[in-house]
Predict the 3D structure of the following.
Amino acid sequence: MVESTLFTIVFVLYILAALFYLAVAFSRNEKWAKPGLGLAFAGLVLHSAALLVRTFESGHAPFTNMYESLSFLSWAIVLAFVLIDRKFRIPRIGAYLMLIVVGLVALASSPLMPKEAMPLVPALQSYWLWLHVSVTLLGEAFFAVAFITSILYLTADSEEKKEKMDSASYRCVTVGFPLFTLGGLVFGMVWAYKAWGTYWSWDPKEVWSLITWLVFALYLHTRIVMGWKGKRSAIIAIVGFLAALFTYFGVNYLLSGLHSYT
Amino acid sequence: MGVDVRSAWKFFASVKLAIALLILLAVASVIGTLIPQGQPSAAYAARYGQLAGLLTGLRVTGLYHSAWYLILLFFFAVNMIVCTLARFPAKWRRAFRPEVETETARLLTLKVKDRFGKNAPAEEVRTKLEMVLKARRYRVRSRASDKRLCLLARKKMFGHFGSDAVHLGLLVIIAGGIVSGLTGFRTYIDLSEGQTVKVPRSPFEIRLDRFETEYYPQGMVKAWKSTVTVLDNGASVLTKPILVNKPLTHKGFSFYQTGYGSDWDNPKLEITVKKKSDPTFARTVQLSVGERVAVDDKDAGRISVKRFVPDFVIGEGGRVETRSQEPNNPAAEVEGWKGAEKVFSGWIFADYPDFEQMHAGSRTDLSFVLKSYRGSEYSVLEAARDPGVRLIWVGCFLVTAGFFLAFYWPPREIRAVLEEGRDRTEVAAGGIASKSRESFQAEFEDIMNSVRRS
């Protein structure tokens, strides 16, 4: 009850933040960024509280079904946004990111997603659930920010803006990629070995994590060794995020495999 | 020959090859998730029709174990080895065998640079600069030649080797995969309570002491728990519960709780006996196969179950068989006894209580309902021995550490040349950092300012 009330308030705060950031994007006046950031931050704090309440009420990590994992992912995206905006001062990304967040929260609140906290099936009873899912989703949140900065790179009209978006994208990848590797692949392999007795079984979710990983490896090699920047880097980052999105979402609904828990 | 080796080396040392391989591996992996893997060929024929032959021929149906995918991985590995080796010596020299001497002119071409004069002897400026640099954890070396003093300060040099650590880690992971593939071994073991089996390819046995299924109040399964004892030469070595996510490990073998099943050889049955002549009559008896039990009634005599099948079907030649080990159509063959004489027999069905198929000539007033049936549950454990797994963890550690070094341990280098003039010292300094240049720029300015102001 407390959790769903908090979640509703969070939803409203995120919508308001998105509106302020839309004002930034369309009026090209950055004075709306400050209240936008304040609202997003307030949302983040209450969202953290909602996740904690749910954890205490259900007694397990808050990412065992689609509702919980969408809620956690949107939390992680807001966190990544706040961190990146602090570093690069690019409130323009706020409009798009907060719209994505609002979309995710709306999807989580939709009647399609069962919300009751179910007791954990034996396969998920492990502290690796915490490590594997939280670190992976945090990495994917940074990929989401890289996705937006890359799109804004492609649509930006001035060199100065392009420069900023490009370096923000790169920073997101250098944070997101290690997190994704550690959480998704390393922790995933450790957990798979503990639960299934094999660290890798070519399950579709595993393969799609590998594909995502290969795309971002491509991003880093073309950028660091071959000096690609700007447009081509932005396109690879966009493809990488789409692969990550498919790993997170598409695999569950379109392909079947070991990871079918939700 | 020499030319061949050299051109092969050049081919594998190229980053373009790495990029081509990353793309090819990604595309191949995508294909493998779009086409179901490892299905029987009939399934492909049904799904893809004429294309099925092509798909199986190209091994797209077992893609991740196909020769061409493995060849891609092999190229990937050789590419990583050659690329790393080709760049390593120069990197090593740059990181650990640096030239301390610097041309002033070269310093001034750097992006991060500073130049100022100070009214103090060169030695004093050097001491101050060294102190400031050391306070920021730089390692400082200097070389003096008449009137000219070169200073080299560096830190976090291991940051240069982040990518090498990642590549080495990936190679170790691939090696681990090969070891797993060649020497790894896994098998399923079905165990009923009290049963002891020798673990294949091991010197010991395991016995299942207890198998329990725990439920949540809502009725969902909470845990499957097998309490297992390891026996070495008949003597018990350890007893431990195995749960999902909590395997038991002994002498390189690990045992995982992977499933359970029902054993229908000796089920516990409950049969309700009724009388056609007396609708109020009902007696329930509990029995197992082969057991004769008396019904609590003077006319009814005793009954037994000759046979139980979980999934009744009439097979070839009219024989009763079971289609599967799932209780889809449980049936029991009931026999009635008066003393030692069998007076009737017939099949009854749990799902079709009204359908009674008593053999001709075995008319009886009694009718039977198969009220419940319960096979004894057995536990399915997976036994695995995988010597490759240690390499995998070493590789994972190297990859993670490499990422940390590559992105969060940025190497920094500051060079300075002090030239002593008549009453002042000219300082020229420059800095090199390939990553996080902004914070380096700030640090560099701080250092120079504190020397300037002292």
